Task: structure prediction
Amino acid sequence: MEKENHTEIKETAASAVKLLGFLCPLIYFASYLTRKDYSIVMDAIISSESINAGAAGLVETCGVISYGVGQIISGILGDRFKPQRLIMCGLFVTMVCNILMPFTPGTLRFAVWFVNGFAQSMLWPPMVRIMAGMLDPKKYNTVAANVNVAGIGGTIFIYLSSSLLWLRVFDSWKLTFFSSAAITEVILIIWIVGFARIGRETDKGLAGSKDGGDLSEKPKLTAKALLGSGFVFIALAIIAQGALRDGITDWVPTLLRNTFKIPSNYAILYAVMIPVIGVISMKLVGICANRWVKEEVKGALWVFIAAIVLCGALRFVYTGNQYLTVALAALIVGCMHAINFFLVCVVPAKFEKYGLVATMSGIINSLTYVGTSVAVAGFPLLTKGGNWDNCILSWVFIATCGAVSCAAALHGWIRFKK
Result:
């Protein structure tokens, strides 16, 4: 009888893990739909409403700042309360913000997107805690990679639907927000129903993700241990990858339109190569993490080195051919997605023994958007007169800073894990 009960618990656990592996990527697909849609249609908004790039970028910057600060708050809450409920609330609020965006006057859009940024921050840290509590390391790597692939898939969907349908056929950037909200509503319902089933099954034998947990039973993470781990240098590398990943993704359509004088919808369509390469990058890094790359900081170091070479090449060829420009930009962003996996997805899971997975995930992910906010607001300042030379040179510098930071962190991080 005891053997039969053990088998039933194991099968129940496997079923819950499989369902979680479906639900988490679905949530991140919705997250990227409702977070990246503004940046993707930003160039179309600039063109249709005759506003300058700085004013349009301010809206995105407000969302990014709110998202970054909210990561820390939701991370702390995610270690103390039921994380699935935080995810549900965040998804609902971001859906409402996307419905409101087309009806909001241009001078007030920053407020709506600020709220949207905070709602988005309620998704990732609680999700990391759920995954770290329910999955073994290899399964965690696989699901985390799939979550990021789903997020990039959401970006691809927005690129294609906006450039080929909403902008090209209906000449309306507003329909992008409405479609994102509608799809998110469906995914929210699936999450509520699906996680209710996981809750019932985990009651039978797979605990960990349902309750907040008792942090008093966990060992304490001291400031001395954290500083000795090289975390400060990891933080700098995370800021660098955030600046390059989101800064390049957001501004490549504008670079193409300025440099090659092509319409906004075509610039967006060409730029879809960026998230496509991102998907390939995430699938490859997920495989590598399970098979060959045992030290995540060392993996990030080598990818940063590759990014330095690619940024340097882009500086010399970006005015010559639009397709080569997009290809190199896509490879650079693909490198940043790989670094994001190593530093933003894998590193927080190492704090599970302290009961601080969601907290550290929130802090780490907020650092990404420190870089993003600087890049989104700062890159346009380097492109006065449509000359992108200085901006692309800054990408070389940022990638170099990331590589140096990873090298400085490597010894301390290896020692901290042991």
User: Anything to note?
Assistant: Confidence is low (pLDDT under 50) at residues 1-12, 204-212. The first helix runs from residue 2 to 49. The radius of gyration is 21 Å.
